Amino acid sequence: MSADHLDDLAPVSAVVVLAAGGGTRMKSKKSKLLHEVCGKTMLSFSVSAAAALNPEHLVVVVGHQRDEVAAHLETLTTTVRTAVQDEQLGTGHAVKCGLEDLGELRGEVVVTYGDVPMLTGDTLRQLVAVHRARHHAATVLTAVVDDPTGYGRVVRHGEKVVGIVEHKDATQEQRAICEINSGIYVFDAEVLSEGLGSLGTDNAQGEQYLTDVVHHAHTTGREVGAMVIEDLWQTEGVNDRVQLARMNKEMSRRILDAWMLKGVTIIDPASTWVDVDVDLAPDVVLMPGTILQGATTIGEGAVIGPYTTLMDVEVGADAEVIRTHGSFAIIGEGATVGPFAYLRPGTQLGDKGKIGTFVETKNARIAGGAKVPHLAYVGDAHIDAGANIGAGTIFANYDGIHKSATHVGEGAFVGSNSVLVAPVDIGDGALVAAGSTITDDVPAGALAVARGRQHISEGWVARTRPGSKQDVAAQSSDGAIHPAVEESRAKKNG
Fold first, then answer.
1. 78, HSE (Cβ side, Cα atoms, 13 Å)
2. Has 374 been annotated as catalytic?
3. Could you report the per-residue pLDDT of 11-29, keeping only the tens digit for each?
4. Please, what sign has the CA dihedral across residues 89, 90, 94, 97?
5. Are the C-beta atoms of residues 63 and 20 closer than 8 Å to each other?
6. How far is it, in rounded angstroms, from Cα 356 to Cα 223?
7. Coil, helix or strand for 377?
8. What is the pLDDT of residue 2?
């Protein structure tokens, strides 16, 4: 089918997503369907694929941990309705539950699952197009595998599908069949209704099999067909954490390959992780150990890593972020961050700004050209353009009850090892002397010094520590000031 033909595909009557299973093999307190693959829940992938068919009704059948699953569905952008399967009586019974409140349907009903995260909307649209083009009463998505153990086998007479036999019910001859049922179908609504009404439980598991609807369609003279998919991953479900890890690895590989083909350099794909909703511009470079999560966006020419984790962070063009952990932050164009920086939510770094080594920021707005180079905590701060924050500076924003803001004005300079006790305002062009604890506002252009006066006790080492290495060094000293210090004083004194 051509892409243009698929774009013109008319909506289906309903899609039923089966999501009621217990998922006990996952051994988890939360629903299996809410475990994530590359940053999104398995169920959200399934709902997105189903929504690509523009169905009149999109129903998710819930059961195990239904409240948790239903609450998650409400967070998705796609509107769905839920149906409850109280007892796990088989796939046929689950579809009955899904259709129960929809009334009489005309057209097609698509059935899929909540734990097949790699199934795409394009594949479902192609399946519906094949179903319509060949005038089938039912069409099943199938795959040919080397080892079909555990899967339902697709039984054919020539090109026609005459039935699907579950592994436990299959004969030795049928178990030799390598074409397997994915469990994903398109049904004519009338045929599905008939078939569901005829279901029994005469099988190895004592359940109502949806596969028996396929057999019913064949025995009543309707045409049943199949579409074989080559991409086996699209039919793979996830039942335990081993399979979940395999699924994550394969989807991650595809995501990284796709970005590299779009002009992103990934130095070591094996150590790089990019979630499905991350957006990367051309000429981005991802160094080894980079993890990009959530809705992170990286601008053109930016270099991320090595060993950097960003979640929901916006990085501007040509920025550099090294050995950094950040979340819910904005990094401007040409800015530099790290190494060993911690950007907490609410951090905004302007263009060509700097957050350096061992700096932690939280709810901090640092304007373009401003610098926090090293060893600082900057919380609830507004730092204007061109300001410089010295090493060891602490923005003391919390008094044990309230959090308060600090403002550092344009071009201001805060000396090393200072404490700014919020709320406090440092004016434009003001200077704070190193080692100061600032509790009052500093006017524009002023110098603030808030520290005890230096006291010198001459001969203290000789009196209290005679013979120590300090005493030996002092006795051999000529008392001269080091040339580098003299030079610096000369420059300062102009």
1. 24
2. yes
3. 999 999 999 988 899 999 9
4. negative
5. yes
6. 68
7. strand
8. 47
Q: Where are the alpha helices (DSSP H) in 172-220?
A: 172-175, 189-197, 211-219
Task: Tell me the pLDDT band of 5, cut-offs 50, 70 and 90.
Answer: low
Catalytic residue among 374, 382, 402, 455: 374
The contacts of residue 483 (CB under 8 Å, 6+ apart) are: none
Name the H helices within 29-145: 42-51, 66-73, 91-99, 121-133
Q: Residue 288 has which token pair?
A: 């080894």
Note the pLDDT tens digit of each residue in 39-48: 999 999 999 9
76-104: pLDDT as tens digits: 999 899 999 998 899 999 999 999 999 99
Q: What is the pLDDT of residue 158?
A: 83
Q: What is the mean pLDDT of the chain?
A: 94
Name the nearest CA neighbour of 191 among 140, 139, 141, 137.
Answer: 137
Q: Which two tokens stand for residue 423?
A: 């709320």
- In sequence order, which residues have a C-beta less than 8 Å from that of residue 448 and are 6 or more positions away? 426, 430, 431, 432, 433, 436, 438, 440, 442
Predicted TM-score (pTM) of this structure? 0.90
SS (H, E, C) 216-231: HHHHCCCCEEEEECCC
Q: In the 8-state DSSP scheme, what is residue 11?
A: P
Give the residues across from 18 on adjacent strands. Answer: 61, 113
**Is residue 315 over pLDDT 90?**
yes
